[in-house]
UniProtKB/TrEMBL annotation:
Annotated GO MF terms: nucleic acid binding
Record protein name field: Uncharacterized protein
Organism annotation: Erythroxylum novogranatense
The Piwi domain, residue ranges: 144-217
Domain Argonaute linker stretches: 3-44
Length: 306
């Protein structure tokens, strides 16, 4: 923070003529805001074990992965002149077994020809892929483990990644020629994730106390209102049909224009069109026009029978 503050002071933005002409002022002090430090999340790994960070990192050395994968169809590409491939594959298989990752022996080991070791990096990569395509003309291996040259600053990494990912779509992992147990563990973490495995879960992701909200939610007053409108519509259709039939037979109707209500005199007819043997004449009221809509909106609609 002290370095950043010194840089701000040395830049002296307040004396910049262009900023002064535009009326822009830049303070030499950083804006201070209140913040808080969140605790590091707890992780869940294989067998339900918890991983708590120590010294700002999670240590997976003695833990199993949450969902380990199987590494079966894979090959090794060796750009290093002094790496023991067999020993490396044995170490990977041994550490993978500790993590419950099943690793078969590689189907092929491709060694770089000594005559191309001083060639430009893209040429070395192209020559290596010529070997791979000659060995697997149709389907290349699903995963390639690449051993980089011994030099610390390797220029093969970029062309190799571009060739694998952009042109062939092959999962791959680059590996330095030296082998340290912790380094191999970290490499297995990356390989497991690249091949579709799951190294860990956040502890909160396994919580079963999650609210479940269904999209099929009904508002009961709305259902009641819809049901009432449906019954009223059926009732009105029945009355109108019955009235038409009675008019054809000479039955009289009277309309109460003052209340906007129509009185229908029928014999032995209930609201659903069934006969009523206990009554010779039943009078039904139903609402028409704007009076019906207004009363239904106010929840005051009634069907009266006398």
């Amino acid at each position: 923070m002290r370095i950043l503050t010194d840089v701000m002071k040395s830049n002296n933005y307040a004396a910049e003529p262009m900023l002064q002409s535009c009326g822009v002022k830049i303070s030499s002090r950083f804006t201070q805001v209140e913040g808080r430090v969140l605790s590091a999340p707890k992780l869940k790994v294989g067998n339900g074990d918890d991983v708590i960070p120590r010294n700002r990192r999670w240590n997976f050395n003695s833990k199993r992965y949450f969902e380990p994968v199987k590494i079966e169809d894979w090959a090794v590409v060796n750009f290093s002149a002094r790496c023991d491939i067999r020993s490396l594959c044995r170490d990977l298989a041994r550490f993978g077994e500790m993590k419950r990752i099943f690793i078969r022996p590689p189907v092929e080991v491709f060694e770089e020809s000594p005559q191309f070791r001083r060639a430009p990096a893209p040429v070395r990569v192209d020559k290596m892929f010529e070997q791979i395509q000659a060995r697997f003309p149709k389907d290349p291996p699903r995963f390639l483990l690449c051993l980089l040259p011994d030099r610390e600053n390797c220029d093969i990494y970029g062309p190799w990644k571009r060739k694998n990912l952009a042109e062939f779509g092959i999962f791959n992992q680059c590996l330095a020629p030296f082998r340290v147990n912790e380094y191999l563990m970290n490499v297995l973490l990356k390989i497991n994730a690249k091949l579709g495995g799951l190294n860990s879960l956040l502890a909160i992701e396994q919580s079963r106390n999650l609210p479940v909200v269904s999209k099929w939610m009904f508002y009961m007053p709305l259902l009641v209102n819809l049901a009432f409108h449906l019954l009223l519509w059926i009732y009105s259709i029945c009355l109108l049909e019955k009235r038409r039939m009675k008019l054809e037979n000479g039955t009289s109707n009277s309309i109460d224009g003052e209340n906007g209500l129509e009185r229908v005199h029928e014999s032995g007819f209930d609201m659903f069109g069934f006969s009523n043997p206990e009554s010779d004449k039943v009078t039904y009221w139903y609402e028409i026009g704007e009076a019906c809509d207004q009363q239904m909106a106010e929840g005051e609609t009634e069907v009266v029978g006398a």
